[in-house]
């Protein structure tokens, strides 16, 4: 267990170090230094409050009303200073938290989006709920790191200061040993506080260590449950059309059962931990009186001295017991650190893989697209396709066909550069490349932004250009709604979404276009209209399509048929009545794309 905690602390430092050595390091360290300085001021306030106890209770003991009023005035001055410092420290602590969280969030979001890491993580399924790790785990990591770290530092400094005070106030303890005489223990209250808090801390860690994996699973189960709810919201029309409410309710209930079952385990463990920590807290109120009262009854100190010693003992004991009081927060932070570290390691692996040579080598060349001896695998390593080769000339159209499950869409993704599992050589020409999936992605916002996606705004094209593109694909009725904000992915039917995707193509004018069942939601007339726009387009794109309809054949120059495919057997290229008119010479020495 200790080794695991050390490993997690190492991972925590690995995650945190990048921020504290980044371009924001000076402002970060400056804020941290300011927070630490304010908290040290609070330690000094505590020392002054400890000295105030002596004067106040001595005034009570001797019935000195004048001194009592003076001590009350001094108390309000000390207390107001403490309140001001506490509030100020909280403000700057939270400022540090949000700045750190913003920086880490941008770092992880950028790493998640770079090299299609989000896509590869989804394919492999090795990391659950990456959205939760970015949105919640980073927030918990930075908040708890700032709070726990600063409180720990302040506790250590305050404990050292009050140990010195307590040592001077406690005096020696005389322990009679009969015929062996009497043993005197100097600063016995210091040893009593260390023993008392040390034993309690050991018991707390023994009772509560099981909370770390439980909190890890809590984050996972909560993320799975929330994801199932979001999925129904995003697919509300499909669920409603199938009448799948009972099935979805069963999924919700099953996933929430995992949440509740894990939560009950946390409850039982926290009940044990809470029983001990609450008992410890109650005993801590009277324990210092028990160890100090012998000197008081021996009239070795006045009432004010007694209260000062008790206050110092409670302060030392409280700081020594920091692990006890903050244990629930510590284990939650360790669980979040473990989840974030796993996410960080996986992103690092994908980043390193992207920096090394791909087994699927994609290079830029003078050809439109050329595939040489390409083998494709599934994410688990099993063979999917073997020895695929094709060389469609520039401006031509190739149709990839075959039974469902053959790997048509996977081949398309590999040529487009988003499927990393396999080996072989792919060469693509200069110019923009665009892949249109069966269900296009339509971001929320204005229709202009959805039409211009992935441009960051709709200003890349004029309203006239956008309206003309909509008219070309049969969506002219939407031209007046370019500035309307809506959830277009839900408002539009699949056929309308596919038409909009073709309007994007007309605007973007890609040199190489991949269409993955991109007209499945249209009738034959609509399909013919859209493919006719592509084949007659003035920029003459090279088109590679995947589809099952026989009507698609007339819009393509050749077919890459995967029907006879089995591993180690090459697919066959079947020419159409209008075959390719030229071969493309491959360039042997090419720089990597």
Helix content: 55-70%
Shape: elongated
> What is the distance, rounded to the nearest whole angstrom, between the alpha carbons of the first and last residues?
47 Å
**Could you state the CATH homologous superfamily of the largest domain?**
ABC transporter type 1, transmembrane domain
Number of domains: 2
Radius of gyration from CA coordinates: 35 Å
Major sheet attributes: 6 strands, mixed
Quickly give the structural class.
Answer: alpha/beta
CATH architectural group of the largest domain: Up-down Bundle
The share of residues in extended strands comes to: 5-15%
Give the averaged pLDDT, no decimals: 81
Number of helices: 18
* The CATH top-level class label of the largest domain: Mainly Alpha
What does this structure look like?
With 593 residues, the protein is α/β, with parallel strands linked by helices. The chain folds into 2 domains: 2-355, ABC transporter transmembrane region fold (Up-down Bundle); 360-442 and 492-575, Rossmann fold (3-Layer(aba) Sandwich), CATH 3.40.50.300. The chain is 62% helix and 12% strand. The chain has 18 helices and 14 strands. The chain has a 6-stranded mixed sheet, with helices on both faces. Helix 1 (2-20) crosses helix 12, helix 2 (25-61) runs antiparallel to helix 10 and helix 7 packs across helix 12 (327-355).
């Amino acid at each position: 267990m200790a080794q695991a905690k050390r490993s997690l602390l190492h991972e925590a430092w690995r995650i945190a170090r990048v921020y504290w050595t980044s371009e924001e390091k000076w402002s970060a360290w400056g804020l941290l230094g300011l927070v630490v300085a304010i908290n040290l001021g609070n330690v000094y306030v505590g020392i002054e409050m400890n000295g105030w106890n002596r004067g106040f209770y001595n005034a009570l003991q001797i019935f000195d009303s004048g001194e009592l009023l003076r001590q009350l005035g001094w108390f309000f001055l000390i207390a107001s200073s403490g309140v001001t410092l506490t509030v100020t420290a909280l403000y700057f602590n939270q400022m540090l938290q949000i700045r750190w969280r913003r920086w880490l969030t941008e770092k992880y979001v950028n790493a998640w989006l770079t090299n299609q890491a989000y896509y590869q993580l989804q394919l492999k399924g090795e990391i659950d709920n990456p959205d939760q790790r970015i949105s919640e785990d980073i927030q918990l990591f930075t908040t708890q790191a700032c709070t726990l770290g600063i409180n720990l530092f302040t506790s250590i400094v305050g404990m050292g200061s009050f140990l010195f005070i307590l040592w001077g106030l406690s005096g020696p303890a005389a322990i009679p040993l009969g015929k062996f005489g009497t043993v005197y223990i100097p600063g016995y209250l210091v040893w009593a506080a260390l023993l008392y808090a040390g034993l309690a801390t050991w018991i707390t860690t023994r009772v509560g260590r099981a909370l770390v994996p439980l909190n890890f699973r809590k984050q996972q189960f909560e993320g799975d449950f929330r994801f199932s709810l979001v999925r129904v919201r995003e697919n509300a029309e499909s669920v409603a059309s199938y009448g799948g409410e009972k099935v979805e309710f069963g999924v919700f209930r099953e996933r929430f059962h995992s949440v509740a079952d894990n939560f009950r385990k946390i409850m039982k463990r926290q009940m044990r931990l809470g029983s001990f920590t609450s008992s410890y807290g109650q005993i801590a109120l009277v324990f210092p009186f028990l160890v100090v009262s012998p000197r008081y009854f021996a009239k070795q100190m006045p009432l004010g001295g007694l209260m000062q010693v008790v206050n110092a003992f409670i302060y030392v004991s409280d700081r020594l017991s920091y692990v006890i009081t903050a244990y629930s927060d510590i284990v939650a932070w360790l669980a979040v650190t473990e989840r974030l570290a796993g996410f960080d390691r996986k992103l690092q692996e994908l980043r390193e893989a992207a920096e090394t040579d791909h087994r699927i080598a994609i290079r830029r060349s003078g050809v439109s697209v050329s595939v040489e001896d390409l083998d494709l695998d599934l994410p688990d390593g099993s063979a999917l396709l073997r020895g695929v080769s094709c060389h469609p000339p520039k401006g031509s159209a190739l149709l990839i066909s075959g039974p469902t499950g053959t790997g048509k869409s996977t081949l398309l993704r590999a040529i487009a550069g988003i499927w990393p599992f396999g080996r072989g050589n792919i060469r693509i020409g200069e110019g923009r490349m665009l892949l249109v999936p069966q269900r296009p992605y339509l971001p929320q916002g204005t229709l202009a932004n959805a039409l211009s996606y992935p441009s960051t705004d709709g200003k890349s094209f004029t309203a006239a250009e956008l309206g003309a593109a909509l008219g070309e694909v049969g969506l002219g009725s939407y031209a007046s709604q370019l500035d309307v904000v809506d959830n277009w992915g839900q408002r539009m039917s699949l056929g309308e979404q596919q038409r909009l995707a073709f309007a994007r193509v007309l605007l973007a004018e890609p040199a190489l276009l991949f269409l993955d069942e991109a007209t499945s939601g249209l009738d034959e007339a609509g399909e013919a209209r859209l493919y006719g726009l592509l084949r007659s387009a003035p920029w003459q794109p090279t088109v590679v399509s995947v589809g099952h309809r026989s009507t698609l054949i007339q819009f393509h120059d050749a077919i890459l048929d995967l029907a006879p495919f089995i591993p180690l057997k090459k697919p066959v290229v079947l020419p159409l009545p209008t075959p390719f008119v030229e071969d493309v010479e491959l360039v042997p020495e090419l720089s990597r794309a």
